[in-house]
Amino acid sequence: MTSSLTVIGLGYVGLPLAREACRSGLAVTGLDIDPSVVAGLMNGQTHVDDVNSSDLAEMLQAGFHVTSDSTCLESSDTVVICVPTPLNEYGTPNLDAVKAATRTVSEKLQPGTLVVLESTTYPGTTEDIIRPILEAGSGLSAGTDFYLSYSPERIDPGNPDWGLRNTPKVVGGLTPTCTEQAVRFYDQIVDTVVPTVGTREAELAKLLENTYRHVNIALMNEMSVFCHELDVDLWAAIEAAKTKPFGYEAFYPGPGVGGHCIPIDPNYLSWVVRSVGYRFRFVELAEEISDRMPAYVAKRVQDSLNADKKSVNGSVVLLLGVTYKANVSDLRETAARPLAAQLSTMGADVRYFDPYAETFNFNGRELVSEDDLEVALANADLTVLVQAHDEIVESGALSRAGRILDTRGVLSGDNVERL
After folding, report:
1. Nearest-CA neighbor of 417 among 308, 258, 338?
2. What is the pTM assigned to this prediction?
């Protein structure tokens, strides 16, 4: 049984992993290059929604140690890399953080260590990029002197039902023995481990999951545009269709796509497909459709204000919920940002209310959340529900508001118009 673990990168993926490992009795060290993250965690301050202060206190009591000193790697049986993999300014994969973390591991790598990459990436990364760096820096051979595997993260922030422990964990190793070692490690901290053929198949599995969602959400976004013109209630049609017990899964439209997966991960697959001479036209089209949704929502705002004989220019437009997902504080790639920018360009006085986001920036501007929801609603010429936080939807205040454009399909009433 693995007794010591180092998790590199203590964000929304790495910190929940460290928590479950602590709960399983492993000696866990968190390695992060951000001094504020290290200091905050060691002082009991969490920065990840899914790991609260009491979780962190339990981890620290169990011996969880956080550091920026890479010498901890020398005594680790297992090293898991959970660093960000964003897109660069050209929309192509940026693996700088992965490469830097891998070089750090290579300098301290010991024989018999299991190294696992969890960062989302394209097929071939583990074998063609991670392996050479580790071997060159350590003088060891992957699959012989140390074990190398890939296991895609499946964290769904804010999901009360599915967490790291009860979500099946896919693993694929460089060799069958590498896969066996990875399965043995993850068996300690998750309920179900799913071994697959190899690293490339495990890498593709993550992109396949999110590309599937990306394409289907885009389908619903496009349908929302023409259903409005056809005077068809798309939301009612979806509810009717989802009663079919087979052959259908419900997806929903919205003001755009945001977060750490849907807007980014399919581009990794599209990029690697282009590298072998093809175009992934489904992904490109889905991205085009969803990218134009904020502008479409702004047009709907304009239409709604016109119905009240008001102009966008000079009107107070209140955005409710600006995070990328309901009931979380994460603002990464949120659709609220391009929507706010578009409305501001049209002359609107953009304001927002979000109990999860004290500040919100777009176009170089920083706004502070309105303090009182009822007052904010009373002062708005139009309200747009961008993110359906429970605290907003269940407040009761929305029924007393003026005109509301609901982009999430969760409100009803005479003052509500759905996307």
Report:
1. 308
2. 0.90
Residue ranges of E strands in 68-215: 78-81, 114-117, 147-150, 169-173, 193-195
Residue of 174, 173, 155, 172 lying closest to 163 (CA atoms): 155
Residue 65 forms beta bridges with which residues? 29
Can you name the residues that pair with 146 across neighbouring β-strands?
A: 142
C-alpha to C-alpha distance for 234 and 343, rounded to whole angstroms: 25
| Whole-number pLDDT of residue 1 | 43
Report pLDDT digits (tens) over 48-105. Answer: 988 999 999 999 999 999 999 999 999 999 999 999 998 877 777 899 999 999 999 9
Q: Give the containing element (helix H, strand E) for 289.
A: helix 281-291
Q: Burial level of 23, CB count in 10 A (0-12/13-18/19+)? A: middle
Task: Identify whether 261 is a catalytic site residue.
Answer: yes
Query: What's the pLDDT tens digit per position in 113-165?
Result: 999 999 999 999 999 999 999 999 999 999 999 999 999 999 888 888 999 99
Number of domains in the chain: 3
CB 299 within 8 A of CB 224: no
Phi-psi domain of 143 (left: phi exceeds 0; alpha: psi -120 through 50; beta: other)? left
Same domain, 355 and 380: yes
| Pair (193, 218) in one structural domain | no
Angle (CA) 271 90 10, round 5°: 80
* End residue of a domain, out of 177, 197, 217: 197
Task: Identify the active-site residue in 22, 82, 227, 261.
Answer: 261
CA 224 to chain centre: 24
